[in-house]
Amino acid sequence: MIDLYASTTPNVMKIVLMLEETELAYTLKPVNVWKGEQFADGFVALNPNSKVPVIVDHDPPEGPYAVFESAAILIYLADKTGQFLPASGRVRYDVIQWLIFQAANFGPIQGQFNHFTSYSGPGHDYALSRYTTELRRQYDVLERRLGQVPYLGGDAFSIADMAVLPWVLVQSNRLGATVPFLDHKSDAHPNIAAWAKRCEQRPGMQRGLAAHATLKSGLPSATPDDLDRIFGRGQYAYRATGT
């Protein structure tokens, strides 16, 4: 059995999709990140960086094992099951390269774009322009790749697709109507649209999307202090002292 400490984020969705695709037994453990539950001692013991997702695998004979960082969790589950990541050779590293593209580029840029779009308030035009421009470029990177191969890692569906798809779908649902290049069915990105449709037609993906949809966001009940804490603002902001 695997415990998945979860919230409504795309990074958590990646792991739900993988668990459903591999048909591993798991339990969702909701974490209200808006109320700061990820900073509790018990959670920090699982992930020193105080982020979801985290899994605890109770199956290893040597005892339970916790894994944090969504890309690491995907690799761990792929190695555990022998699925969705080739065992060796170039095909393995083709998948890993696109997995890291998501973890190091596509995801962080989406996060910054979301922050300056929805949470930072006025007066940040340069930051919003910068992250919008870079995000648009990265969608073009995906579009070119998916014009060459059916899946990000090559010919087969893999953990690279499970890493990228949640961000594409969530951003499309949130902002596709106002930021056209984020619409995952956009005529501007036909290869992304065709790839997303192929992925969504998989039964495991459908089960994963349905399971993730059962999670509820704590944002509607978040107080101004909750928002300051999660964004490092106000009394939680770092301020240099001394001469």
Question: Can you walk through the features of this model?
Answer:
With 243 residues, the protein is an alpha+beta fold. The chain is built from 9 helices and 4 strands. The chain has helices at 10-22, 41-46, 70-81, 89-118, 125-146, 159-175, 190-200, 203-212, 224-231; strands spanning 2-6, 26-30, 54-57, 65-68. Strands 2-1-3-4 form a 4-stranded mixed β-sheet, with helices on one face. Helix 1 crosses helix 6, helix 4 (89-118) runs parallel beside helix 6 and helix 5 packs across helix 7 (190-200). It starts with a strand and ends in a 12-residue tail after the last helix. The model has no long low-confidence stretch (mean pLDDT 96).
Tell how many strands the DSSP assignment holds: 4
Major β-sheet, in short? Answer: 4 strands, mixed
Number of helices: 9
Our measurement of the CA-to-CA distance between the termini, rounded to an integer number of angstroms, reads: 54 Å
Q: Order of helices and strands, N to C? A: EHEHEEHHHHHHH
The whole-angstrom Rg is 19 Å
Give the overall form.
globular
Mean pLDDT: 96
pLDDT < 50 stretches: none
Structural class: alpha+beta
Determine the fraction of residues in helical runs and give it as a percent range: 40-55%
Strand content: 5-15%
Q: What strand order characterises the main sheet?
A: 2-1-3-4
